[in-house]
Design a protein that fits this description.
Order of helices and strands: HHHHHEEEEEEEEE
CATH class of the largest domain: Mainly Beta
Structural class: alpha+beta
Shape: elongated
Number of strands: 9
Oligomer: single chain
CATH superfamily of the largest domain: Jelly Rolls
Helix content: 10-25%
Length: about 190
């Protein structure tokens, strides 16, 4: 039966791996962090635990931060299944599906919009960032500032979000589009 690694051993292994990735010797890391080579050696072997401030100094010298240092492989979700989506439908049966439920913590936010004939999304006020869309089916009107654009199935759009904007249905069937906002704003 294998013995589970202590937190000190886990931290030591991560420090050693990062030091090696940065092509540093224990002595070079010790010099950069104003620690001794012996202390770095003890850390890497899991024989001692650094204070939080010492660990912060070490990981910064190794080109990372505490959040990334302690993040485990697999902590970041890569695939999002349909059951992960969050959907909202209004009284007109228009719907928005947040394709990445945790997108508020990311730099972009993709949604799937389904517009019933004659319906529209609420007008969006000018904000920081950009908006991208791709019409999957149907046809929509994009009102961007003082201009209106007709966007058909298979067409896309991209614009800075510094003007008021709104998407409306432009056909007699349900229109659907992928809409990506960066940074998240929906």
């Amino acid at each position: 039966m294998e013995k589970e690694m202590s937190i000190e051993e886990q931290i030591g292994i991560k420090i050693r791996d990062l030091r090696n990735q940065n092509d540093l010797t224990q002595e070079e890391l010790a010099d950069r962090t104003e620690l001794t080579k012996g202390f770095i050696s003890q850390l890497e072997r899991g024989l001692t635990a650094p204070s939080v401030s010492t660990l912060l100094d070490i990981v910064e010298c190794l080109g990372t931060n505490l959040s990334d240092f302690f993040r485990e492989e697999g902590d970041v979700q890569i695939v999002y299944r349909k059951e992960d989506y969050f959907e909202k439908e209004d009284e007109h049966k228009n719907s928005i599906s947040w394709l990445i439920a945790t997108a508020q913590s990311r730099s972009l936010e993709p949604i799937l919009v389904r517009l019933q004939p004659g319906q529209s999304m609420p007008e969006d006020k000018p904000h920081e960032g950009e908006e991208f869309g791709y019409v999957l089916e149907g046809s929509v009107l994009l009102q961007y500032g003082d201009h209106t654009y007709n966007i058909n199935e298979g067409d896309s759009f991209l614009f800075p979000a510094d003007k008021k904007h709104k998407i409306s249905s432009a056909c007699e069937k349900v229109s659907s589009l992928i809409w990506v906002s960066s940074p998240p704003s929906f």
